[in-house]
């Protein structure tokens, strides 16, 4: 008699790269005879895919592991596995401090051992993992979008960042495999493809392949009909005119520029090891606005870096007000082991770091609100993601939630949608595109009424 599928739960923490890693693990677990369940109390095995990017992420990972461990007493859980960034970097320490964890696996090849490790720990003989063209289960495909990771690791070596210590140096994936996976995702109904990496603009540099990203994008355009293709994380030091021109020439490449600047003081930028000056970043932004039709600019900033004086912070504020980014995320500096910045005196008090972050986010809230208000009356194509829960809806008339091409998944705002009388029943559903006229706006969200095509 065939072995009954074993229920397993997988909890994902951290960034989009971790989410993609989890998709691969879920597919491989399913192929090995496991069955995914979101009910932790019914899972015989629980897997926690951890993050270790900054201290708050580590704390969240540890808390989640301890919460999952409780199901070994109160639920069906027999095996607890910890995988990903924290497991790869701190497995020895965690092994000593967390005896309730049965399996520690890091990244890459280690994660691919997860099905066999779980089988051994559970004493099971499960169906061997079958070969697949693209072994992935993409939960977001039902909403019409997906992430596609084009490289692993990073060679930028910013002084505050532990990513190279966790994920290693840059390793670009072969283009043929990426294109094949893009076609597979399209077959699942994906209409928005978000290419991700620690730095997408570094793609191919580890192989000395100049122009590799442009050629990859051209291949995806040739081999798929995916209408929205978005690049997430373009390093300002590596953004080139040729890429901007390629985006301008192809309306399926979204004019969405995700360019983390981190700071604007040349003194702090140099200490961070960013490899770019404020003037160079302003020139790149000016070039993007010249070449692209109304580009959406997204960035992140890091406040409270060691040695950041009030004058440096004020320079960052002036930069933000000058550029007027459409989207901005902010973080406070936290010391990370073995990074070059760890040797610097953490000179900015925590309370002052938080105050500076609040100042930046309040400025950005006003900029975002003004940018959204400028969209009133426009017709936008919206990717519908889900029905709106009544407790979330700002008004009963808004029954659907989605995103325009100006909104990246999970980090930007939402477009709430009301249906008009002329819209046919069944025309609107998760994963479908709709045309909407923007009738109201908020600080971060837009509100539209669906119109017939």
Give the helix/strand layout.
Elements: E1 6-12, H1 16-31, E2 34-36, E3 45-50, H2 55-69, H3 71-74, E4 79-84, H4 85-97, E5 103-105, H5 114-122, E6 145-149, E7 151-152, H6 163-167, E8 171-172, H7 175-187, E9 192-196, H8 212-223, E10 228-232, H9 241-249, E11 256-258, H10 266-272, H11 278-291, E12 296-303, H12 310-323, E13 327-332, H13 350-373, E14 379-387, E15 398-404, E16 415-419, E17 433-441, E18 446-451
Parallel strand pairs: 1-2, 1-3, 3-4, 4-5, 6-9, 9-10, 11-12, 12-13, 16-18
Antiparallel strand pairs: 7-8, 14-15, 14-17, 15-16, 17-18
Helix pairs in contact: 7-8, 9-11, 12-13
Structure description:
By secondary structure, this protein is α/β, with parallel strands linked by helices. It has 3 domains: 6-122, Methylthiotransferase, N-terminal domain (Rossmann fold, 3-Layer(aba) Sandwich), CATH 3.40.50; 139-373, Alpha-Beta Horseshoe (pyruvate-formate lyase- activating enzyme), CATH 3.80.30.20; 379-451, Nucleic acid-binding proteins (OB fold (Dihydrolipoamide Acetyltransferase, E2P), Beta Barrel). Helices cover 34% and strands 21% of the residues. It contains 13 helices and 18 strands. A 5-stranded parallel sheet has the order 2-1-3-4-5, with helices on both faces. Strand 17 (433-441) and strand 18 form a beta hairpin. Helix 7 (175-187) packs parallel to helix 8 (212-223) and helix 9 runs parallel beside helix 11. The model has no long low-confidence stretch (mean pLDDT 90).
């Amino acid at each position: 008699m065939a072995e009954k599928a074993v229920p397993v739960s997988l909890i994902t923490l951290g960034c989009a790269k971790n989410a993609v890693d989890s998709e691969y693990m879920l597919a491989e677990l399913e192929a090995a005879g496991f069955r995914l369940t979101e009910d932790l109390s019914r899972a015989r095995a629980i897997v926690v895919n951890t993050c270790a990017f900054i201290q708050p992420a580590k704390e969240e990972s540890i808390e989640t592991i301890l919460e999952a461990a409780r199901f070994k007493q109160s639920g069906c859980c027999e095996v607890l596995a910890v995988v990903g960034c924290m497991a790869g970097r701190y497995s020895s320490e965690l092994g000593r401090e967390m005896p309730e964890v049965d399996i520690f696996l890091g990244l890459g090849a280690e994660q691919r051992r997860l099905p066999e490790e779980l089988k051994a720990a559970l004493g099971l003989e499960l169906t061997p993992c079958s070969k697949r063209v693209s072994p992935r289960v993409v939960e977001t495909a039902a909403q019409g979008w997906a992430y596609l990771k084009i490289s692993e690791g990073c060679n930028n070596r910013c002084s505050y960042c532990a990513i190279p210590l966790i994920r290693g140096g840059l390793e670009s994936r072969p283009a043929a495999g990426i294109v094949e996976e893009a076609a597979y995702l399209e077959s699942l109904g994906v209409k928005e493809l978000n290419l991700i990496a620690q730095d997408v603009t570094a793609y191919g540099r580890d192989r000395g392949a100049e122009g590799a990203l442009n050629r990859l994008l051209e291949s995806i355009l040739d081999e798929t009909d995916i209408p929205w293709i978005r690049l997430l994380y373009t390093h300002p030091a590596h953004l080139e005119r040729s890429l901007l021109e390629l985006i301008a020439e192809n309306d399926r490449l979204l004019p969405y520029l995700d360019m983390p600047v981190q700071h604007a003081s040349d003194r702090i930028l140099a200490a961070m090891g960013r490899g770019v000056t404020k003037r160079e970043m302003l020139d790149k932004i000016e070039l993007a606005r010249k070449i692209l039709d109304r580009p959406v600019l997204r960035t992140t900033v890091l406040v409270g870096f060691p040695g950041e004086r009030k004058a440096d912070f004020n320079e960052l504020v002036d930069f933000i007000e000058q550029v007027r980014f459409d989207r901005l995320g902010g973080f406070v500096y936290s010391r990370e082991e073995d990074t070059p910045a760890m040797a610097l005196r953490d000179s900015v008090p925590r309370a002052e770091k938080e105050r500076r972050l609040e100042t930046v986010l309040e400025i950005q809230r006003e900029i975002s609100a003004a940018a959204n208000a400028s969209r009133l009356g426009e017709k936008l194509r919206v990717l519908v993601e889900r029905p709106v829960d009544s407790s979330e809806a700002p008004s009963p008339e808004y029954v659907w939630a989605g995103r325009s091409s100006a909104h990246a998944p999970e980090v930007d705002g939402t477009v709430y949608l009301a249906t008009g009388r002329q819209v046919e029943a069944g025309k609107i559903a998760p994963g479908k595109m709709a045309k909407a006229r923007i009738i109201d706006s908020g600080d971060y969200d837009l509100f539209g009424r669906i119109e017939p095509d």
